[in-house]
Write a structure and sequence with these properties.
Two copies of one chain form a homodimer. Chain A is α/β, with parallel strands linked by helices. Chain A contains ten helices and ten strands. Chain A folds into two domains: 171 residues, 3-Layer(aba) Sandwich (Rossmann fold), CATH 3.40.50; 93 residues, 2-Layer Sandwich (Pantoate--beta-alanine Ligase, Chain: A,domain 2), CATH 3.30.1300.10. In chain A, the strands form two sheets. Chain A has a six-stranded parallel beta sheet, with helices on both faces. A three-stranded antiparallel beta sheet of chain A has the order 8-9-10, covered by helices on one side.
């Protein structure tokens, strides 16, 4: 069955015009921010937005400011035609695909700087990451003015940071977190999984196995440090050659986890060859 | 003639409810951000907002984060009852007066950091000032969601920084600059003028005289450095004991002024006893 073509906005002026029309019709609008290279995890976010919104905008923008010079900005997968086709099949209503020039015109000089949930974990290894994410998401929210924005739990700290930024700056939208979509062997779907060799791909599910194991051990009363040390050993044995962190944190603040004071989260980041994988799972309180 | 009482919102929830009602009625909304201690300069901003808006909100919030510990946060004039009465007479529709707790609840950890127009001048002497201003104004814009916000040209660099932040972050509102309101002897109206002793008050108009003189000299071709040096000498002779800066800048970017490439601005800040006065005037291109 042929799908209806989906409009693509590339300028803020065009985007605002479309959103204004929807507003005048009383539509409720959802935003799904992405960097493209879409997979089933992304389309699940579109479906979740559709549950409560009449119109869903998916943004596709590979944001240069959240990559360090040493990182994979230039090689990040760009599959725009395929992305648009997937979004059309998912009945998304609009693709918002600004150019870098539209997003960061000459003279751009304002940054949104999150602390709190942004401290530690990813920030210890990617110090510019959350500043870049917070700034571009603030811009996306101001551009699209959605009622909700949906983010995957796969990037759990990012979700916590975005919630904090929206709360701290009183932005008039709700942030919705969506469960991580996994391959059948447990590997969290990620645009970066396509970097993996066949052998690395066979090793990759160990990441999900160990964080799940840490969650079970901590929940059954084992000390956090013992569980994380064992997990690090298992990841190294499996073939991960550099472990950035395996940590247990308070799920809401990402501060220290305190048993019996709300849910926790196990979060991990480690390298398999040239690919950095992250994953996380809940610890029920 | 008795004036109609004006409603005062002190919580974001109450504010949003009132704004939502106006939006549903199709009203155009203007915001006048203030720190209270209102004078005729502030009520002129309300009048300017009324020219294009159906509903005008004036916020009154003495923002602690834009004061350094050494500055006058604790002694800044607070005249809330009188402010509300003035706003009622000015036919303002709502006073938005959040508490510090409502504005910065526990755990607040996100800042808006402006560079560009925020560099130099005031920042050289009040390094935290524009970060505090940009963050609180971003919050006010997200809370009130106005169509326009009106700021006085008296704080000229602040106006430029706010324009830049709104432009850079794509906030869906227009920033309107309003002419400085002056006493009959030329002194720019300011809430801090009430700090001046009778003798200082007689000296204070020298500030406006010298910036006006610099503008005339630069416009007639005199070198900027010569004009500013002469102005500094005249201020010191008049009784100003510390001159923070007297500068000529590009009126839009606040970068270096380049004759024939758009309008310039003369900006000055200097101390009279314990009171810091600022002023600025245009140089036509």
């Amino acid at each position: 069955m042929p799908t209806t073509p989906i409009p693509v906005s590339t300028t803020i002026a065009d985007l605002r015009l479309r959103v204004r029309t929807w507003r005048s019709e009383g539509r409720r609008i959802g935003l799904v921010p992405t960097m493209g290279a879409l997979h089933a995890g992304h389309t699940s976010l579109v479906r979740i937005a559709q549950e409560t919104c009449d119109r869903v905008v998916t943004s596709i923008f590979v944001n240069p400011t959240q990559f360090a010079p040493s990182e994979d900005f230039s090689t990040y997968p760009r599959t725009f035609e395929d992305d648009v086709a997937q979004l059309a099949r998912a009945d998304c209503h609009l693709v918002w695909a600004p150019t870098a020039q539209e997003m960061y015109p000459e003279g751009f000089a304002t940054h949104v700087a999150p602390e709190g949930a942004a401290r530690g974990l990813e920030s210890d290894f990617r110090p510019h990451f959350f500043g870049g994410v917070a700034t571009v998401c603030t811009k996306l929210f101001q551009q699209v003015t959605p009622d909700i924005a949906v983010f995957g739990e796969k990037d759990f700290q990012q979700l916590a940071v975005i919630r904090q930024v929206v709360h701290d700056l009183d932005m008039p939208l709700a942030i919705v977190g969506a469960p991580t979509v996994r391959e059948t062997d447990g590997l969290a779907m990620s645009s970066r999984n396509r970097y993996l060799s066949a052998e690395e791909r066979r090793t990759a599910p160990a990441m999900h196995e160990v964080v799940t194991d840490v969650a079970a051990r901590v929940q059954s009363g084992e000390p956090i440090d013992t569980a994380c040390a064992e997990a690090a050993r298992r990841l190294a044995d499996a073939g991960f050659h550099k472990i950035d962190y395996i940590a247990v944190r308070d799920a809401r603040t990402l501060g220290p986890f305190d048993r019996g004071r709300g849910p926790g989260r196990v979060l991990a980041a480690a390298w398999l060859g040239k690919t950095r994988l992250i994953d996380n799972v809940p610890i029920e309180s």
